[in-house]
């Protein structure tokens, strides 16, 4: 959601900015723009739609010089249009700003600025920022940092900002409050960016800006300040991901590549957190061993796909531990009057570590004395910095908007954490632990097996992709997988899909069942009772002539007579089967989307990282 890039150095900024914007495309956007400052002259180019259109404009009419700032916009205030695209300038056209976030009091600021003679052209909240800075500059025309800091103290909300000022042609200013922004540290050149993958090909060192910090970048220097104007010492960190990790590596899309990376990612997590096949080695020191023993309640918080990982986490923690577990959406928990106390462990799950609602919920829980463990994929992200302890999912950059490898890595992280916590609390016998670990070790190979069936899954997708809707059913551990399977389908194929607890089917969705409705039933072999219940649901769908697509355990002949199509998967304990079963549903959604001709890596209207509420 909105991407920011900025460059100051000896090269022309335009190609560097365009390259950075390309790398930020995955975050989701509907228009793009850039500004280049060349010897005090500001040139701005903006285009609605795909970045290729901005690239074409820039190729026809290139701008030379540096520094430059660029932006991919995901519309919040005002429709996608050139006038609403960033960069925005002050009325005099001397200050150019790119912004990610929302200025909540923009209407009152705008009214005040209009009374001061400033003229607004767009419908955006962002446009108040350059004008507010211009207003503050009236006090002292030379002190830009002072004006910026005073302006920001008047703005309420979230922002990551990149700013150019025509009177200081060798500088980029930046600021952050609640939206992600990093500084890339180069040799004779420096960058600002929304995330590391945007500049991964250019730098090996970064500074993660903290909330309430401002920066001034020149080609050979970076200075950091707090909002009071006091200078801070930058904490420069080494980048831990490699440039190749953010490439398609020969796959037709990032999503397909990421689906195929899952066996490696999960194997890596398993090896990292198990000392050998017999023992678990999850580092819980960030939470404290005594605290872990005393936890009386767990509240899992997350959004989107990560929320479904949380639903899985709840089931597993409940299975392995004698503990109360709840799961809640970030956007709900932040406004609930839930009782949160120091005995409640918050587990925040997030691929990006930048999801505004998840972070807001975490901050609220921290204010009530809770400790926070995050399951996160991005080192240095806002969530990681808010947490007492972190279990990294180590999935590498996930570029496809629809989450795949980050999701299965979150499930594996939950499995490892639950085993580690149960062990520490003395709630897990040696025998049960080795049984669980032996099952978990099967996961990467089993996923390979599902991947090897992709042609069969493609044929099933080809048969069913054209209907208006699809229903996904699962029970217990595979109920979150039914929800996630349906979400994957809607996200990338735009076919309406609904995930349901199979036991709830009779309370509504059964009315939809007809020969036209594909019903994806996850009926892998679990304990006998649950399998039988699921099979009854399958029969109920069959009796109403629904088009059954079953995800079933290899060798299960009983399903054959009922389901028109079957995706066979290898047998594994029910509690770990979601990591395998979901891969079948990822592929099903993928090939449906392909058949429907959508833009799989960048589905319409979606953003990879939802940094506003
Ligand atoms: C967006 C993404 C989803 C993701 C969700 C939560 O909606 O498109 O793929 O699951 O945000 O993001 P997070 O980074 O917190 O996991």
Task: Describe how the helices and strands are arranged.
Blueprint: E1 3-8, H1 13-24, E2 31-38, E3 41-48, H2 51-60, E4 68-73, E5 88-89, E6 95-103, H3 106-115, H4 128-137, H5 144-154, E7 157-165, E8 172-177, E9 182-185, E10 190-193, E11 205-208, E12 213-218, E13 221-226, E14 231-232, E15 236-238, H6 254-260, H7 262-273, E16 274-276, E17 279-280, H8 289-294, E18 297-302, H9 304-320, E19 324-329, H10 330-333, E20 344-350, H11 356-367, E21 371-376, H12 382-386, E22 389-392, H13 405-424, H14 430-452, H15 454-464, E23 469-474, H16 479-493, E24 496-501, E25 518-522, H17 528-543, E26 547-553, E27 565-569, H18 577-596
Parallel strand pairs: 18-19, 18-20, 20-21, 21-22, 23-24, 23-25, 25-26, 26-27
Antiparallel strand pairs: 1-4, 1-10, 2-3, 2-4, 5-6, 6-7, 7-8, 8-12, 9-10, 9-11, 11-15, 12-13, 13-14, 16-17
Helix pairs in contact: 1-2, 3-4, 4-5, 7-13, 7-14, 9-13, 9-16, 14-18, 15-18, 16-18
This protein binds 6-O-phosphono-alpha-D-glucopyranose (G6P).
Give a description of the structure.
- With 613 residues, the chain is an alpha/beta fold.
- The chain has three domains: 3-245, Aminohydrolase, N-terminal nucleophile (Ntn) domain (Glutamine Phosphoribosylpyrophosphate, subunit 1, domain 1, 4-Layer Sandwich), CATH 3.60.20.10; 249-441, Rossmann fold, CATH 3.40.50.10490; 445-599, Rossmann fold, CATH 3.40.50.10490.
- The protein is built from 18 helices and 27 strands.
- The strands form five sheets. Strands 3-2-4-1-10-9-11-15 form an eight-stranded antiparallel beta sheet, covered by helices on one side. The protein has a seven-stranded antiparallel beta sheet with strand order 5-6-7-8-12-13-14. Strands 19-18-20-21-22 form a five-stranded parallel beta sheet, sandwiched between helices.
- Helix 1 runs antiparallel to helix 2 and helix 4 (128-137) packs across helix 5.
- The mean pLDDT is 95.
- The protein binds 6-O-phosphono-alpha-D-glucopyranose.
